[in-house]
Design brief:
The chain has about 750 residues and is an alpha+beta fold. The protein is about 65% helix and about 10% strand.
Length: about 750
Amino acid sequence: MTEVNTPPRVGGWTRFVTARPRLSLLVALVITALAVLAGSGVADRLGAGGWEDPAAESTRATKALEREFPGSQPNLLLLLDAGDAPVDDPAVAAEAKRLTQRLAGERGITGVGSYWQSGTPALRAEDGHEALIAARITGDEKAAAETLERIAPHYRGVHGPVEVTVGGPVAVRHEMQTIIQEDLTRAELIALPVTLVLLVMVFGSAVAALLPLGIGIVAILGTNAILRGLTELTDVSVFAINLTTALGLGLAIDYALFIVRRYREELSTGAEPLTAIGTTLRTAGRTVLFSALTVAVSLAAMLVFPQYFLRSFAYAGIAVVLLAAAAALILLPAALMLLGHRVNALDLRRVFRRGHRPKPAGEEGRTWARTATLVMRRAPFFALGTTAVLVLLGLPFLGVKFGTADDRQLPATSESHVVQEHIRDGFPGSPDGGLEVLAQGRATEAQYGAYKERIAELPDVQRVDGPLVKGDSAYFTVLPKGEAVDDPAQRLVGEVRELKAPFDTQVTGTAAVLVDSKGAIGERLPLAAVFITIVTLLLVFLLTGSVLIPIQAVVLNALSLTAMFGAVVWVFQDGHLSGLLGFTSPGSIETTLPVLMFCVAFGLSMDYGVFLLSRIKEEYDHTGDHDQAVRHGLARTGGLITAAAVILAVVMVAIGTSRVTNTKMLGLGIALAVLMDAMIVRSLLVPAVMRLTGRATWWAPRPLRRFHERFGLSEGEPGPAKETEKETEEAGDKVGASHA
């Protein structure tokens, strides 16, 4: 730390961000106002799909069927309930035919069909009191949603002897989008005041507490503007806006907490504001920069996947992380320069102190220092014990079953969910979950018939309908036995694709989309994992100069996520606590969710890991005492990391109050991961492992040491650690030899 009465040591960056603080804040205010205008209405332009691989066979077949046979891919379903009367009652049939004809005349509607026209058993409920009118709304997601909003009120409700409810994929997506927007507003209303209260509890000063909140709001508004611009270039998922709010608020608060806390710590030693800002930016500022890069790297890994659902989170996440870091490193120092010692103003905790003086800065971390001492004294016990607990909590994930996102993401009372539930429970053979087989190429009726027979002979087939022929193309509908996306249905996709035919065939449908999505993720998952691992190892090496610490960081961070994955399966797949949390379990986990949750949670774990490691490294460079460095690092950051984790968990839990199951899973799962990482891994496992590795923790071979000296970042002048470098190297060599 900077000594009192020494000249201020400020670098070029410090001079840059503190030279004209009023001008900097004014420019930021103008840019933020422009971001509000640019980002307005962004939610209305976001899509509610994006789970499929755009290059997959199922996607190509779906587009071809939409083009050639629009009636084969209905996305609008009208469920007609005749009450006690049968659907074949003359009065019911007459009204149903009238509604069918009326729907066929609507602008933007094509491929209209109904049970009363075709007599298809799949469109009639087994109890005989409900039946379906199916149609396709043309256009992209936005155009389809506008058409639905225009026509749905004219069909929904009682029409003579029948009651009509509106469902289908378009209705599901529209309700999902609407609910997410409503839930996001509610989450913000919950998270912001609770976060402000927690920040006041952490800082005491109302002025200091408002700074992180302001940085978070700037990051969120800026990212909304970026997402609005991206919608002009590519598809962006509506779910990404939840991540924008959560990460924007959570990470901005983390970064601002770290910087403001270090700044106040420097002031408490008697440093002048400019000197305190300089020291803060060289230490905490560097940590924030590395933290932002590691989080951005984790999120960038989702760009290797083809599904725009995952890519959207990468767009939103990278943007909000970089904006949060930029605001913390540019705007926050300017604000601190203007405030000076007034950053401690409006201390709201004075009323609870009753005349007691606050603890000196050096005594604030005594509890965490004692915790570190206890853990390191019994390092093998804590290392093995915490690892065993984390592995045990993750065991349920071994039974994970992957599925697709459907109407069960919505509340049980939502209209489109009710329609799909009636279809699943009351209609034969999952009429909305069959496979569609597109045949292209000139063929005879006999060739079509022979191919149909080969499909019907497959063991998991209940019925084959078709073909419907148009020119040189035809399509068949294959109804599987059992559920639309269970294991037999997925197996059936491969069996149908392997059948030989005298024409080209492509298979689509719900199960085919799932099979292709799993294939795309499985193919690219190793690439994403290698990318995250290599770049994270490099960044942590540049931060610490150690070979072992980056490996520890990656392994321990991955281990910290086991509880999240175990809980996701136990709660959301198996349905435990579904009544308490208010969701319907589909019996599976949407394929892309584990990838998304891993990337986000791993990045946040690295965020806290960098906070702790940077302070340990700083102390080790100054003293050369490994055990003291670990104790000092945990003492200085333990409370800060815990406070940041609790605040971020509050934000994620607020997101987790959503009525959409995937959003609920994302919010609650990441909240659990963050708390487990801060309270178990950073507090117990990291100091235990670092005690076991001892001074060898800091070892690196000479070429890598020279690389770090040239390209890595370090603080201040070389300390006693440099003098013990040879001892560290020898300790590392002994450890390596013992393992060899």
